[in-house]
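User: Let's play a game. I give you a shape written as tokens, and you guess the letters that built it. Ready? Here's round one.
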């Protein structure tokens, strides 16, 4: 799967970084392509599988192997985990063994709120439910979840399954039983609270296990929540460190002399001095995306979201460190380097999308890179060791809010976007509609890309949507929306008579070029997976699972599932047979109109009008669909 990771010596890593036995086990599991052991497949977020039973020649023979209904109707983002050789203990009743212990392969499946977790037996012909965890959460969290009640997945490590519930409760469940020893069925091994929903703070991201820590972030930028990322001890749930996106150096865990931004020290209290007065306390910069980890550097990578409010006039300055890519030391949380992709954001261009860690040859030498497809429409390639900016180019030709990223290191604006002021809501002013700004929703949202090492291509699901944006003055009240803008969305090429709002593309991150691009009727809101069989899979909002030739983009197969797909495709193997699995269940920001029954065109932070016709193609319903080759 991840050739960057498997090439390293596990023994040397253990000596150098002090890994425990269970962390070594997780690294070893990532080498096995028959399993899917983390939310994005591996530490590097590559979402690539070495499985090759399904190929470009036979993928057209895929059929539905089995399905499972989750029983929940809201948007189903994320993907299941597949872990082999889970030892299920014997069952006793009245002191007598009624079922013998056994070992099997297990799929762990999650749902949107109320965040039910299922453990399914993959060796059982009927895929029996081994255990089910159904947390009791206060439904009052639902109204403060910005863009549907989604959850992006589970994590596995140390024999435990980890879930970050909507109400900001992180729980650790026994992978074999779903509960702690001798406890009731819904009693976790441990649980901790990392946010306050009464202030609009929620959780939608998947937790990630890196070494002996579980990392989790918060959501709620549209409620004036202050972003943070936390690391807990896997075994006990003890908080090890917490790093905020804004505030003094003691909160952000920034060293003013050692932490760099584009190669220069950031200086004292950089998380305060580009905000007006105390606006940083409502600064947003939430961390609801994906996290990656380089075990050789012992650095984790992630991005922060939009500043609060959406009205840029109310928050002068660069608003650091919202809209920023971070590299932090895993053990201490100390920030090594930062790069702010959209200083003083005016368009809601969160930088939370994943960083894919790939070694690439650039300028004639091998470089440890991090590749990031930002919601602002630019694809960035950075040196992940020091944060040096190597490539920054548009991955959607419709992008117009900025003409380019300044790549001249001698320039005062080095690394910053060069704005087209026609599309600047701040320049145009409050209560004035800025028309035709591109993108909206971001040219790519949270839906994760894949990297195929065989072609060197990044396979990226994208949005192709523009907007009219009107900022207005808004006051802060804890737990109430703190948006301050009205948005109308529409297809990027409507002036050319085009109606499609998505593209699925292949990207060369060394050159910053689109290699091929396939139009999608609606935004491609599903995570991709590439394989050594030469096939890349992704889903569509209408509900199709699609397979394309990774090299050329030629569509090789599609199948309509019961609901629109905003989940991420995975592939795994059981008893020598390769499977492809994906969660259906329309919703998320793009599908919020269907999911929440909204009808006004500017409802759902502007998404409802643009995706109104989606109801002609699909309906609500959470279903896992698993495919295999016809025998």
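Assistant: Ready! My guess for every position:
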């Amino acid at each position: 799967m991840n050739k960057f990771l498997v090439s390293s010596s596990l023994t040397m890593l253990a000596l150098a970084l002090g890994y425990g036995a269970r962390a070594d086990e997780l690294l070893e599991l990532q080498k096995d392509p028959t399993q899917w052991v983390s939310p994005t497949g591996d530490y590097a977020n590559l979402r690539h599988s070495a499985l090759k039973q399904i190929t470009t020649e036979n993928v057209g023979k895929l059929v539905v192997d089995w399905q499972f209904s989750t029983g929940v109707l809201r948007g189903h983002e994320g993907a299941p985990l597949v872990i082999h050789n889970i030892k299920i203990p014997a069952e006793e009743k009245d002191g007598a063994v009624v079922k013998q212990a056994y070992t099997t392969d297990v799929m762990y499946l999650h749902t949107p709120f109320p965040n039910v977790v299922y453990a399914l037996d993959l060796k059982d012909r009927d895929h029996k439910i081994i255990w089910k965890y159904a947390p009791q959460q206060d439904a009052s969290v639902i109204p403060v979840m910005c863009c549907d009640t989604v959850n992006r997945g589970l994590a596995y490590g140390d024999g435990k399954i980890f879930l970050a519930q909507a109400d900001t409760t992180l729980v650790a469940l026994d992978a074999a039983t779903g509960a702690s020893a001798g406890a009731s069925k819904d009693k976790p091994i441990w649980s901790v609270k990392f946010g306050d929903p009464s202030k609009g703070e929620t959780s939608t991201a998947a937790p990630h296990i890196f070494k002996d820590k579980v990392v989790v972030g918060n959501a709620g930028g549209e409620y004036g929540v202050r972003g943070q990322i936390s690391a807990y001890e896997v075994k006990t749930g003890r908080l090890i460190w917490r790093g905020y996106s804004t505030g003094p150096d003691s909160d952000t865990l920034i060293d003013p002399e050692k932490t760099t931004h584009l190669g220069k020290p950031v200086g004292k209290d950089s998380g305060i001095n580009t905000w007006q007065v105390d606006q940083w306390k409502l600064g947003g910069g939430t961390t609801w995306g994906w996290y990656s980890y380089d075990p050789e550097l012992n650095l984790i990578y992630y991005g922060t979201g939009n500043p609060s409010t959406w009205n840029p006039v109310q928050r002068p300055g660069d608003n650091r460190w919202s809209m920023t890519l971070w590299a932090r030391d895993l053990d201490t949380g100390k920030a090594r380097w930062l790069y702010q992709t959209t200083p003083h954001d005016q368009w809601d261009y969160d930088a939370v999308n994943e960083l894919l860690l790939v070694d690439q040859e650039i300028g004639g030498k091998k470089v440890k890179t991090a590749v990031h497809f930002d919601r602002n429409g630019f694809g960035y390639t950075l040196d992940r060791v020091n944060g040096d900016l190597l490539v920054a180019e548009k991955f959607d030709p419709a992008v117009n809010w900025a003409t380019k990223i300044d790549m001249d290191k001698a320039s005062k604006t080095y690394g910053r976007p060069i704005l087209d002021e026609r599309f600047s809501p701040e320049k145009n002013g409050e209560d004035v509609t800025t028309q035709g700004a591109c993108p909206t929703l971001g040219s790519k949202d949270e839906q994760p890309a894949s990297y195929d090492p065989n072609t060197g291509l990044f396979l990226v699901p994208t949005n192709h949507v523009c907007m009219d944006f009107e900022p207005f003055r808004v006051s802060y009240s804890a737990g109430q929306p703190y948006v301050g803008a009205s948005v109308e969305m529409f297809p990027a090429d409507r002036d050319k008579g085009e109606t499609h709002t998505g593209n699925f593309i292949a990207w060369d991150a060394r050159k910053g070029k689109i290699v091929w691009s396939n139009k999608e009727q609606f935004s491609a809101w599903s995570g991709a997976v590439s394989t050594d069989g030469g096939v890349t899979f992704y889903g569509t909002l209408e509900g199709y699972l699609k397979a394309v030739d990774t090299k050329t983009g030629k569509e090789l197969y599609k199948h309509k599932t019961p609901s629109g797909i905003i989940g991420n495709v995975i592939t795994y193997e059981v008893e020598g047979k390769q499977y492809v699995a994906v969660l259906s269940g329309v919703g998320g920001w793009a599908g919020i109109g269907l999911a929440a029954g909204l009808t006004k065109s500017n409802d759902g932070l502007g998404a409802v009008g643009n995706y109104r016709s989606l109801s002609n193609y699909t309906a609500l319903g959470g279903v896992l669909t698993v495919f295999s080759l016809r025998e």
